[in-house]
């Protein structure tokens, strides 16, 4: 597992850790050329406390939908009198030259056992990566959201990432014994 790459997640993870179906699930598409393409893919970065855990942030091409949600969140903050509103649960950046929404609100932790395929650019046959400024923005906003969730603001994300994290730590510990 390497930070800064995109991965597809094995169905086993969702069966074990998402019984309430709050995460974005796997869905396979076939493009115009008949090529199968998994979705969603997840941008992954290492946990600051345990390098065996990665945080996965799904991306979406539904820019209109997530721009509306993003703007709605900013407007609600302005209406409450916040002078410099910020939405760190949805961020935007380029993936292979195309704008995408990074859905930090849908992030979750994972371990290598549940990582499926690496997202490969079909043209270059290399792992898909994002520009450094986008990577820094995603990681810093995700870290901020994690701090807020850990301090009790669990509504910022869709699933119970704290419980999942703890269960993954237990799974790692059990595997070492």
Characterize the structure shown.
The protein is of the alpha+beta class. The model has no long low-confidence stretch (mean pLDDT 90). 25% of the residues are buried. The chain is globular. It is built from four helices and nine strands, in the order E-H-E-E-E-E-H-E-E-E-E-H-H. Strands 1, 4, 5, 6, 7, 8 and 9 form a seven-stranded antiparallel β-sheet that branches. A two-stranded antiparallel sheet has the order 2-3. It is 33% helix and 25% strand. The two termini are 22 Å apart. It has helices at residues 11-17, 63-79, 132-150, 161-176, and strands spanning 6-9, 27-30, 36-39, 42-46, 53-60, 90-95, 98-103, 108-111, 115-118. The protein has a single domain, classed as Thiol Ester Dehydrase, Chain A (Roll), CATH 3.10.129.
């Amino acid at each position: 597992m390497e930070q800064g790459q995109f991965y597809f997640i094995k169905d086993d993870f969702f069966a074990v850790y998402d019984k309430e179906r709050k995460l974005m699930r796997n869905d396979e598409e076939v493009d115009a050329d008949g090529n199968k393409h998994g979705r969603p893919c997840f941008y992954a970065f290492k946990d600051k406390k345990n390098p065996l855990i990665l945080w996965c942030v799904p991306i979406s091409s539904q820019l209109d939908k997530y721009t509306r949600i993003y703007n709605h969140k900013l407007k609600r903050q302005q209406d409450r009198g916040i002078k410099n509103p910020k939405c760190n649960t949805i961020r935007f950046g380029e993936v292979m030259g195309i704008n995408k929404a990074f859905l930090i609100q849908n992030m979750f932790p994972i371990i290598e056992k549940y990582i499926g395929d690496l997202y490969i650019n079909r043209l270059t046959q290399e792992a898909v990566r994002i520009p450094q400024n986008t990577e820094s923005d995603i990681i810093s906003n995700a870290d901020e959201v994690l701090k807020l969730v850990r301090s009790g603001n669990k509504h910022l994300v869709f699933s119970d990432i704290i419980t999942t994290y703890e269960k993954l730590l237990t799974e790692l510990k059990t595997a070492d014994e």
